Amino acid sequence: MRTIALMLASAISTGAASAAPSGYLDGRPAGYVTVIDGRTLWFPGSAQKVRLAGIDSCELLQWAFDPKRHGNSLILKPVPCGPLSKAWLKRLIGGSRVVCRISSYSTDGALAGRCTAGGRDLAVDMLRVGWARVKGPSRASSEYLRWQRYAMSARYGMWATYVIDPDEWRAKAVERTLARKPIADFNLLSERAHEISPPFLDARRRPPRSDR
């Protein structure tokens, strides 16, 4: 009877294991990912989109600007803030598996949580290299704020540029195709409501075009 009981227990545990959905580890999204942008991951194994909680980054189509003047141009040299943020997140993950501990949902319905690759917090690493900024309730996180201050003081990533707050960009940007030109973000920057970069006079000059 004891042998039969052990066999039944083994069968039940095996069945439970096989019933567990792929792409999860202890109920958390886990596995290899596709990087969508500087704060968003796609888990193909579980068909889930996960945002890095507590941080924000430039949208893929968003431009920032080098504060150094190049020649006599009235427009500052554009910096592809969105693609660079995405590239850095891909670099930080490399070929590692990612595990996320979900804490909430983002406003568009995507999951949001703390994600690690190789045991490292991806949000912390993005803040450390300057391609993300602290956002939301995690403003209370001393670690996140400490790494943001570190990157800002070193002028890493987006902190070496003049850039509009990503939330403000999402609210105001009209043209959201690959055809979007840097002048559109220069115009938005010149009328920004919130300052996240050091103030500078040239960005306040109204350009002759009004693309958005």
TrEMBL record:
Residues 27-161 form the TNase-like domain. Keywords: Endonuclease, Hydrolase, Nuclease, Signal. GO terms for molecular function: endonuclease activity; hydrolase activity. InterPro entries: SNase_OB-fold_sf, Staphylococal_nuclease_OB-fold. Transmembrane segments: none annotated. Pfam families: SNase. This is Endonuclease YncB, thermonuclease family. It comes from Mesorhizobium qingshengii.
